[in-house]
UniProtKB/TrEMBL annotation:
SUPFAM superfamilies: Phosphoglucomutase, C-terminal domain, Phosphoglucomutase, first 3 domains. Residues 409-468 form the Alpha-D-phosphohexomutase C-terminal domain. CDD domains: PGM_like2 (cd05800). This is Phosphoglucomutase. It catalyses: alpha-D-glucose 1-phosphate = alpha-D-glucose 6-phosphate. The keyword Metal-binding applies. Pathway: Glycolipid metabolism; diglucosyl-diacylglycerol biosynthesis; Lipid metabolism. The lineage of its organism: Bacteria, Bacillati, Bacillota, Clostridia, Eubacteriales. Keywords: Isomerase, Magnesium, Metal-binding, Phosphoprotein. Signal peptide: none annotated. GO terms for biological process: carbohydrate metabolic process; purine ribonucleoside salvage. Transmembrane segments: none annotated.
Length: 474
């Protein structure tokens, strides 16, 4: 195995090329060494997996290695969402969880991530330590394994099921009475992933009329990716319109991200839903605290926070930093523009099932569509348009554009003066009128991600064209 690098949310690779049984055992041995070095081995580790090809077999290999190191394993018997595995850590007071998932990646990928004892995404100090352990094992280390039948005999392996407790936790984080009082018609799309059987079951119990699509295991994900974005939710859009539903709700491959389709079949972005949810929480909850968002997420949250005398905590991209803010700062809500969300009182891990339930709560209470709620928000706070553009380049072009970005010091963009800039993540330019643009080179691909937010579609296009031209990305 070559050197392994944990990305924003674990290590992912192509099955049979790099993601092999031998390499998984090496990574799990590194995780076991880390757990023992932290003095947490006696607390045990949760092991979960998604619906991808061979995920349950990869999870079994992890269990063999962890139990071989004397660490008790609490293993799910069936595909489980990442937020359920994270919740199990808290419920069982475990040392963490190993989750076999490549989330929303293409079907040929699988992945592994470690969720520490705080039940949120691992921070760099944890992933760096695991990487160091893995490197030592690759060089000259030994992998310890135990037959799973023997592990059961030695009380080192226990099968678990926490759906009832997790559902109870969700129903404490949302207000089920709002939904029961005015149940809505919903189409649920778990995108063939680990979220099958969660959201639809809860909504039916709350009185909603539910139609479910793509609700069986397909390791090819219908020939697409299990990513709930505008371009990949054609099935859900069609179903919402055909069934005359109030809303369509989608989950990604491990159910930690969400997608929303409004009654007319249009996609509601996580940014749009995020600011509507923040406003809703302020009207329906008594708790007050900061709002936590990534640098790439809508600043409409900042406007609402200022109106209510609340602080904003801005983080680099990656929900691990938002999870840290939720744990340490008592935030009301954490949001990233790519569809990660959690709220105060819930686990500090993104949870697509929670986000979807909160979406239904909003619709049930207001009796309005998301488009109508967005129009109300625009009347109060002004128009808001945001976009993310991914530009693929060659690796040679990427280096050229990175050099251009380093020298990029615009005084104005779209005729508006640049007020300030920062380099928390890539380069961000904030204009006098509150508009902003963020340019981030991907850490793993020859891709540039450009995020823009402003008050009109025309200005958004002007900023986009000017940035792309200046950086040589046209």
């Amino acid at each position: 195995m070559s050197a392994m690098k944990f990305g924003t949310d674990g290590w992912r690779a192509v099955i049979a090329r790099e993601f092999t049984f031998d390499n998984i055992k090496t990574v799990c041995q590194g995780i076991a060494c880390y757990i023992k070095s932290m003095g947490l081995a006696k607390k045990g580790v949760v092991v979960g997996f998604d619906n991808r090809f061979l995920s349950e077999q990869f999870a079994a290999e992890c269990a063999r290695v962890l139990t071989g190191n004397g660490i008790k394993v609490y293993q799910f018997a069936y595909a489980t969402p990442t937020p359920v595995a994270a919740y199990a850590i808290r419920l069982l007071e475990a040392a963490g969880a190993v989750m076999i998932t490549a989330s929303h990646n293409p079907p040929e990928y699988n992945g592994i991530k470690f969720i520490p004892e705080y039940a949120g995404p691992a921070l760099p100090d944890v992933t760096d330590a695991i990487e160091d352990e893995v490197s030592r094992i690759i060089e000259n280390g030994r992998i310890y394994e135990l037959d799973l039948k023997e592990a059961v005999t030695l009380d080192l392996l226990k099968e678990i099921e926490v759906d009832k407790e997790y559902t109870g936790q969700l129903l404490r984080a949302v207000n089920p009475e709002y939904i029961k009082a005015n149940p809505v018609k919903v189409v649920v799309d778990p995108m063939y992933g680990a979220g099958i059987g969660y959201l639809d079951k809860i909504l039916i119990e709350l009185g909603c009329e539910v139609k479910t699509i793509n609700n069986y295991r397909d390791t090819m994900f219908g020939g697409s990716m299990p990513e709930p974005t505008d371009s990949l939710l054609a099935d859900l859009k069609r179903a919402v319109v055909n069934y005359k539903a109030d809303v369509g709700l989608a989950l990604d491959g491990d159910a930690d991200r969400f997608g929303i389709i409004d009654r007319d079949g249009d996609f509601i972005t996580p940014n749009q839903f995020g600011y509507l949810l923040f406003d809703h929480l302020l009207k329906t909850r008594t708790f007050r605290g900061p709002i936590c968002r990534s640098i790439a997420t809508t600043h409409r949250l900042d406007q609402i926070a200022r109106e209510n005398g609340l602080a904003v905590i801005e983080t680099p991209v990656g929900f691990k930093y938002i999870g840290e803010g939720m744990r340490e700062k008592g935030c009301m809500m954490g949001l990233e523009e790519s569809g990660g969300l959690t709220v105060f009182g819930h686990i500090p891990e993104k949870d697509g099932i929670l986000a979807c339930l909160l979406a239904v709560e909003i619709l049930a209470l207001t009796g309005q569509t998301f488009k109508e709620l967005m129009a109300e928000s625009a009347r109060q706070y002004g128009e808001n348009y945001s976009v993310r553009v991914d530009i693929k380049t060659s690796y040679a072009e990427k280096e050229m554009v990175k050099a251009n970005l380093k020298d990029f010091q615009p005084k104005t963009l779209a005729g508006i003066k640049v007020d300030r800039s920062n380099e928390i993540e890539g380069r961000q330019f904030i204009l006098e009128d509150g508009s902003w643009v963020l340019i981030r080179p991907s850490g793993t691909e020859a891709v540039f991600r450009i995020y823009i937010e402003t008050d009109s579609e025309e200005r958004l296009q002007e900023i986009k064209n000017e940035v792309l031209t200046s950086l040589g990305l046209h």
